[in-house]
Amino acid sequence: MSEATGKKAVLELDGKKIELPIYSGTLGPDVIDVKDVLASGHFTFDPGFMATASCESKITFIDGDKGVLLHRGYPIDQLATQASYLETCYLLLNGELPTAEQKANFEQIVREHTMVHDQVSRFYNGFRRDAHPMAIMVGVVGALSAFYHNNLDIEDVNHREITAIRLIAKIPTLAAWSYKYTVGQPFVYPRNDLSYAENFLYMLFSTPADRDYKVDPVLAKAMDRIFTLHADHEQNASTSTVRLAGSTGANPYACIAAGISALWGPAHGGANEAVLKMLDEIGSVDNVAEFMEKVKRKEVKLMGFGHRVYKNFDPRAKVMKQTCDEVLAALGINDPQLELAMELERIALNDPYFVERKLYPNVDFYSGIILKAIGIPTEMFTVIFALARTVGWISHWIEMHSGPYKIGRPRQLYTGETQRDIKG
């Protein structure tokens, strides 16, 4: 539990003073407890919850001004370069990085749960072939509760743990199948001899006709880093949605489906997809300079640069840029759109207008380029984000259910009509 600082904030309302306790976390600004404001007949007003701490958490810390992102205290760049995605999953779920034995056991149990119930595969047939993969993911993930209803006691620690493993293990299979279904290819089943990232790429790109399909290790490494860099990001919109849904006692699969729905929004998980759309609109390298001048005149929006939380460099972007360079070098791609993206990056990192405003390329800018280079279609970008973020969502869900919590119930500033009567 957070510690009281001994300090109090004093709020004066209608001549009456209300003392509000102030709490300190281990990092970050102190927090004013405003619960007592309600007893005075008032609400607090904070659109977008920009100054509101909705919960107490020990999982992830962000300092946007300094460009810091910590998972259980470990900097994201260290995790992305010195730990695997599944090690990061273990960390988020358990609070500590695994020992060699714990890592081997965790990887084994995840591998044992990558398959899904055979009837789940038939569930896909209920969707149109041209359905967006995210629409399929929302439906299929929510439907998992119908297949694993014997382990849905949210008060049971063991049930919570097995649900977390099932989600982490099965989401790549469901994600790959959502792509296969929309392109009319047969589903490819997971292989237990492959790593987590290799397995996903194998299910995504291999076909029964190509039995000797091999996953490029450079691409597997890049995908593993993409997963790690998107694993969690504190109380963002989708994580807050999972927590809010979870506060009702809803089953975890429904909560994760709610998180996927929130992530689907272009202002959240769709940001890297928006980068590719922007590059399409720019057209060619010859148009980049004029486009950037339009950005300065605020005539167009620059996607993939800057961040709502990070007022400095996105700490994930440095690792993602390195990975981007590795992927492009390994594939030897000569793609005009990627050349265009690199020119955008060059201008943004050197033009005083962008440097002074700290409009640096963020994680979405580089991840979009990497995914395109790998050959992943744009409509799958947010699906991959959802795959990676599932561990963050379920970690927060477990944390919430591991202690006392209240059902979420935000209030409002009502500006509609006052009471009136229907005239006879």
What's the average pLDDT?
Answer: 92
Low-confidence stretches: none
User: What would you call the structural class?
Assistant: mainly alpha
If you compute it from the alpha carbons, what radius of gyration comes out, rounded to the nearest whole angstrom? Answer: 23 Å
CATH topology of the domain at 3-53: Rubrerythrin, domain 2
Number of helices in the DSSP assignment: 17
Strand order of the largest sheet: 1-2-3
Strand segment count? 6
Strand content: 5-15%
Largest sheet: 3 strands, antiparallel
Describe the 3D structure.
This protein has about 425 residues and is mainly alpha-helical. The chain has a domain at about 5-55: Rubrerythrin, domain 2 (Single Sheet), CATH 2.20.28. About 50% of the residues lie in helices and about 10% in strands. It contains 17 helices and six strands. The protein has a three-stranded antiparallel sheet with strand order 1-2-3, with no helix packed on it. A three-stranded antiparallel sheet has the order 4-5-6. A hairpin with a 4-residue loop joins β4 (about 60-65) and β5. α6 runs parallel beside α7 (about 195-205). The protein starts with a strand and ends in a 23-residue tail after the last helix.
